[in-house]
Amino acid sequence: MKTQVAIIGAGPSGLLLSQLLNRAGISTIVLERQSREYVLSRIRAGVLEWGSVELLRKAGVGARMDAEGHPHDGFHLAYNNQEFRVDVHKHTGKRMMVYGQTEVTRDLYEAQDEIGATIIHGVENVKLHDLQSTPRVTYELDGKTQEVQCDFIAGCDGFHGVSRPSIPDDIRTEYEKVYPFGWLGVLSDTPPCADELIYANHRRGFALASMRSATRSRYYIQVPLTDKVENWSDDAFWDELKRRLPAEHAKTLITGPSIEKSIAPLRSFVCEPMQHGKLFLCGDAAHIVPPTGAKGLNLAMSDVYYLSNGLIAHYDDGNSNLLSAYSETALDRIWKAIRFSWSMTTLLHRFPDQTDFDQHVQESELLYTAQSKAAQTSIAENYVGLPYSR
Ligand code: FAD
Ligand code: DHB
């Protein structure tokens, strides 16, 4: 098989890249290890930056998001049973959209079906070859080895994919910080306890109240890495969440059976460079942020913005400047989001060795933020998403 761009992975980065390229008349083949049903069953992020919203519209997949998503103008920070609102719209003129990653992925699949794009599921043993000359991807499907010849490869295969390790060790530098806790998340068909998200710093640990719709809630609590999800009953989860949320919301919290419950570890990770020869990495294949601040999915989308522009300029005008600068351009924004997610994680979580002094400093920073327009503007502009550079 031949195509212009072979894309490894049908997560949000792979599907969005394929969609933008196909609409620009560039051919793609997407290779995905899992089944379509499996990809669509993953429950992950829920908050879109405005840049992501606009990119999805540009890709022709904005209709259901605009009809069913919930624009949010602000969010709440809570500590010591107090809470204040960061008015993102007032400080930045922009807003966020609450619309789940699962829905984004479904919309992208449907748009790809309409275009007649090629997405091959259930591929095994994917290998990348000849990255410096005429690249090829080999894989196994139903026991047979197949090959795709292409001009470029986009590695959109997540943190555990094959693309990043295909960049030779002596060229690749990896930066990593592993946090000593995880997030236990619960999805439930219950109305959210508040109209906007609440991020809570509590002496027992962080908690987040989020939502997917007027009838579906998403909640998280910080847990030790040693905790097992099967040892957390729904009742135990709700009791702990109520202890950590401000009393006003805990009182009105409506509980119900969990429809998904899982523990995710927290880490910051960056791979540099994000390109090698004809291979370009996008999204979780190149970087991971802790979820505090909702940057993971949004960073995947800004990578796709830069890479799609680079590829389109290359094919349309023969100008490869954007493509050559991809890694540098994308990393500039990535490191800013890495910094923001790290600072939100540091501000809001209880660390195992945390002293009362450290706790006072956290609470003092929250109080300062509550009282300072400058501090709120800084949080707001990072939360809503820094502008794309070109
Ligand atoms: P992925 O979504 O990981 O997609 C990669 C795709 O590649 C997958 O479909 C995978 O099956 C496929 N693949 C992997 N290896 C191969 C291979 N060898 N060959 C072919 N295909 C392969 N972000 C937030 O902002 N908020 C959250 O609450 C949040 N929660 C998360 C919870 C979990 C458990 C995880 C893992 C991530 C979470 N994230 C969250 C991060 C966010 O979901 C990711 O940043 C986003 O999914 C990145 O999209 P992606 O397409 O780059 O990677
Ligand atoms: C969600 C996840 C986040 O990491 C976050 O910061 C906000 C919301 C969510 O899943 O709804």
UniProtKB/TrEMBL annotation:
This is 4-hydroxybenzoate 3-monooxygenase. InterPro entries: FAD-bd, FAD/NAD-bd_sf, HB_mOase, RIFMO-like. Keywords: FAD, Flavoprotein. Transmembrane segments: none annotated. Pfam families: FAD_binding_3. It comes from the Bacteria. The keyword Flavoprotein applies. SUPFAM superfamilies: FAD-linked reductases, C-terminal domain, FAD/NAD(P)-binding domain. Residues 2-341 form the FAD-binding domain.
